[in-house]
Amino acid sequence: MATIASNLQAVRAAMAGAAVLAGRATDEVSLLAVSKTFPAAFVRTAFQAGQRRFAESYLQEALEKMAALQDLAIEWHFIGPVQSNKTRPIAENFCWVHSVDRLKIAERLSVQRPVNLPPLQCCLQVNISGEVSKSGVSPDEVSQLAHEIARLPNLQLRGLMAVPAPADDPLVQRTDFAMLRALYDQLKNEGLPLDTLSMGMSHDFAAAIAEGATMVRIGSAIFGERDYD
Fold this sequence. Notes:
By secondary structure, this protein is of the alpha/beta class. The chain has one domain (about 1-220): TIM Barrel. It is about 40% helix and about 15% strand. Strands 7-6-5-4-3-2-1-8 form an eight-stranded parallel beta sheet. The longest helix is centred in the N-terminal third of the chain and has 20 residues, at about 1-20. It is globular and about 45 Å long.
């Protein structure tokens, strides 16, 4: 458990270094700890080390952790694909959803968001690399969908999210992130009040920060390698 605290410290230091290299303020980028597949005890340890934002991809696993950690003031983010039959519990239990990619899903989240809760913060997921196996709206459909989502009453569109195809070359990484940043800038120029670029993970967050990420999603660099078995 002590390793989680030291890993968090190392990740934050690396994020700050990447921001400085990019000529950005170190507080411009926030850390989202991706706790999917890791037990609630790991989340509690990270919380005790100062981390407050956590992300999950699997709904049932997330709900179980929420129940086990309800004594902690955690800001929960959903980053997995959103299926129609799971929109209600997502709308009822999460603060953020990063993976909205269809108007139907956004409409269901808006209708099912409890009136006693603040608007559900959301990002539009973009399939920036054009991978058939990945969720996300295509880049040429981003503008229309973003404006439609921005009009829904119980959602607040905050920005864009992407999971580009894995690449070891930092130049390739930056190219994909630059494409998402360009779409983000376009939407802002069209009048949408966006403030979030959710991009970058354990292997590429430095490139994401160089291209303007405001939120990076880090899992294995904090909690260790995942065992999906």
